[in-house]
Amino acid sequence: MPLFDVYPLYNVTPVSGVDMHVYDEKEVEYLDLYGGHAVISIGHSHPSYVKAITNQVSKLGFYSNAIQNPLQVELADKIESLSGCKGYELFLCNSGAEANENALKLASFKTGKSRVVAFKNGFHGRTSAAVAATDNPNIIAPINAQQKVTILPLNDVEGVKKELEKGDVCAVILEFIQGVGGLDQGTAEFFEQVDALCKANNTYLIADEVQSGYGRSGKFFAFQYYNVTPEVISIAKGMGNGFPIGGILIHPNIEAKYGMLGTTFGGNHLACAAGVAVLNTIEEENLIANVNEISEYFISVAKTIPQIKNIKGRGLMIGLEFDFEVGELRKKLIYEYHIFTGGASNKRLIRILPPLTIKKSHVDQFFKALNEVLKTVEK
């Protein structure tokens, strides 16, 4: 049976990975500066992570949410401790799209409203309401388009005010650093005024931290650079280091009700074991401090390269923007220099989303290769 052909694939077949590197079937080593869409947070096959999953699956891999699962409580407590989001409550699911779906559903339940405000170049997932709130008509089917969503430009405070005062908006969903859209950010004034407008209009502020969370921005969450208090925070990608897990953090003012949200696989024993191992490693190896140190070094080197016209993002969520489309450049990096990087809807942008364990030597390796590739592009 053929696979349904919806992904354009590079001719690379990784079969193993260790920390910052993956290896193909011919044992060729690739430097991973993309982390599989920012999923690999503590490095490929981290020994503590492998041990935690192995030990758990040897005892109990799964049972339903109808029973007590102390691993869920351990994970929730660890997130609260490391994130500083005191008093929030955790609902676990399986992916970023599912996290945002539940966030939007919760906002609609609690406010009694149904319209959503989202932003240009935003990406929130591929499921029903999440994809409707995504600024990409090519991936929104007619069944998704039934959702009521208004998409505004970033930094349009007056536009947000106008829409919220109509009284039918349940949620404003935004990325504090846009991912797929190309690493754009709003201003501090914009984010803080949107938060205030939400509070004044019985509207939930949903912080989509699916890609920017778990230390990638240089803080545990990217919204923590600003004076805002989201009602709901969605998390996923770096949460399980490759094991499927997602969740939402829910403000303590929001009361739970039996049956309001639910999931079969969310918060299963294996996923929680993976999640706890990731947080333990982030803490024990001081990886958020490493994010900030390496980010500063990376940006300082990037500034010396004249072909880079703009540096976007924060932490280890970095975009390098050129004055030409970078598709061929990225192919050369993969096939000739064995370095994975990421693309974006902005075709002139390279996204850098490495494991948080990256070292300066890896940055040097990348920029040496990039400079060589840029010579061939110029020719």
From TrEMBL:
The keyword Transmembrane does not apply. Coiled coil: none annotated. One of its GO terms (molecular function) is transaminase activity. It holds the Pfam family Aminotran_3. It comes from the Bacteria. SUPFAM superfamilies: PLP-dependent transferases. Its cofactor is pyridoxal 5'-phosphate. Keywords: Aminotransferase, Pyridoxal phosphate, Transferase. Belongs to the class-III pyridoxal-phosphate-dependent aminotransferase family. This is Aminotransferase class III-fold pyridoxal phosphate-dependent enzyme. It comes from Mariniflexile litorale.
